[in-house]
Amino acid sequence: MRLFILLSLTVFSDAMVMDEKVKESFVLDTVSAICNYDAHYKDHPKYWCRGYFQDYCNIIAFTPNSTDRVALRDIVTVSCLTKEDTGWYWCGIQRDFVRDDMDFTELVITDNRRALANNFWSGR
C-alpha cells in the first residue's frame, strides 16, 4: 500500500508546469504565461493566483471565468501592466480529494525599458 501511494505521488506531482520561472515586462504592456499541464487534467478547473506562498495566494481568475484584465485558458494573459503587478503568481489545477497541483512564476514589471536592457546585457 505504501508503495502505491508513493508511486501515485510521483506520477501526479508534476501535473502543472509553468513555462518560465521569471517573466519581465513593462508598464502598460501585456504579458502571457503558459500553464502546461498533463492531458489527464484538461477538463479540471484551472486558476491563476497571486502570493508568495501557494497555500495563501489570492485567486485572480478561475476557469472558465475571466476579468477585464486577466484571461485564463491554458495561457494566462495580463494586460495594462502596472509596477504593482510585480510579484509571485501561481497556475493551479483544482483536483478532488488531493492537494491542488500548482507551479509559480515571478513577474517583474519595470517602467524603464533601458534599465531592463542594461541589466540583460550586464548579466544582472
Observed structural traits:
alpha+beta, membrane, Immunoglobulin V-set domain-containing protein, 124 residues, 4-stranded antiparallel beta sheet, 5-stranded mixed beta sheet, Immunoglobulin-like, signal, disordered N terminus, transmembrane signaling receptor activity
Question: What would your notes on this structure say?
Answer:
It is found in: Membrane. One of its GO terms (molecular function) is transmembrane signaling receptor activity. Residues 1-15 form the signal peptide. Keywords: Membrane, Signal, Transmembrane. By secondary structure, the chain is of the alpha+beta class. The chain has a single domain, classed as Immunoglobulins (Immunoglobulin-like), CATH 2.60.40. The chain has two helices and nine strands; from the N terminus they run H-E-E-E-E-E-E-E-E-E-H. The chain has a five-stranded mixed beta sheet with strand order 2-9-8-4-5. A four-stranded antiparallel beta sheet has the order 1-3-7-6, with no helix packed on it. A hairpin with a 2-residue loop joins strand 6 and strand 7.
Write the layout of secondary structure elements.
Layout lengths: L1 H11 L3 E3 L3 E5 L4 E7 L8 E5 L7 E5 L7 E3 L2 E4 L8 E7 L7 E10 L2 H10 L2
* Total helical segments: 2
Strand content: 35-45%
What is the residue-averaged pLDDT?
Answer: 81
Order of helices and strands: HEEEEEEEEEH
In short:
One of its GO terms (cellular component) is plasma membrane. With 124 residues, the chain is an alpha+beta fold. 17% of the residues lie in helices and 40% in strands.
